[in-house]
Write a structure and sequence with these properties.
The complex is a heterodimer of chains A (166) and B (145).
Chain A (H helix, E strand, L loop, with lengths): L4 H9 L1 H8 L3 H27 L9 H29 L1 H5 L2 H27 L7 H27 L7
Chain B lengths: L2 H35 L9 H29 L1 H5 L2 H26 L8 H27 L1
The chains are: A mainly alpha (166), B mainly alpha (145).
Amino acid sequence: MPSIVPALEWLEGLAWTTAIRESVWGYPMIETAHVASIVAFAGLVIMMDLRLVGLAFTHAPLAQIQRRLFPWQIAGLVPSTATGLLLCCIDPMRYYGNVFFRVKLVLLALAGLNALAFHLKTYRRAERWDEDPQATATARLAGAVSLLLWSATIVSGRLIAYNWFK
Amino acid sequence: MSQAYRESLYLFALTQSLHLVAVTTFFGAILIGDLRLLGWGPVAQSRAGIARSAQSVLLWAGLAVLVTGIPQFTTHALTYQRSPIFVFKMCLLAAALAFTATLRQRVAAADEGRLPSWVPRAVGAVSLALWMGVTISGRLITFFG
């Protein structure tokens, strides 16, 4: 299977990635922007999940909360992803070799799949969400899984900074 | 590395990570309230309704932030107290807490239409700026501590 290492080394060698990597402010600024956008994005996702599991905002119809929050979640996801990709370009070899980064990518994919599955279901039965017990049970499960996956993703992301395993 | 030190490093890292999850939850509750104040987000819900729901999340998440924040501080107290960024974060946090507990609370609980429309919008914007400021300066401690 072809290795992506040559591609990563090429990225690492580019003038602009090297410049940012070696600058004093470059990396801190981009990483901070990454954390800030994630806090906003994941914060709203967690609010949605708390509604799904019935722990908060229960006075509001589920479909309504979901519909209004969704654009803002996407608005937070865009800078999160952009800064994340940027960080990968700037220091690709560091992240490639980091076990917590790899775990984070897997968790991210799972969280994304869970969210996609939920979306495909909600749009079909939006009006009945709050009355249908079956839908409520599905909602609770999706919410709980989502809470778990996104929390694990955040933890994994934070642990990237620790180079415990080589 | 002694066993004890290694274990405390793992514990510190875990605490720090859970702190981030708690911060994210806290900020999410702030954000959903501020979006409502700004006239965006779940607008079919009253400001007061959203605020009431968000309040218990804020309290629980806030407690988690405290519980996970204090061990970090006690481990590195000497370093942190000499750090201007840490001091700045704490001042900003105090301002944000005071603002949220007083002005923001009152504006969010006010009946729709009782206040001129610019007031909740201004409060929402200030709240976002303060809390995002706390989050960002918290992150910068690692870089410029």
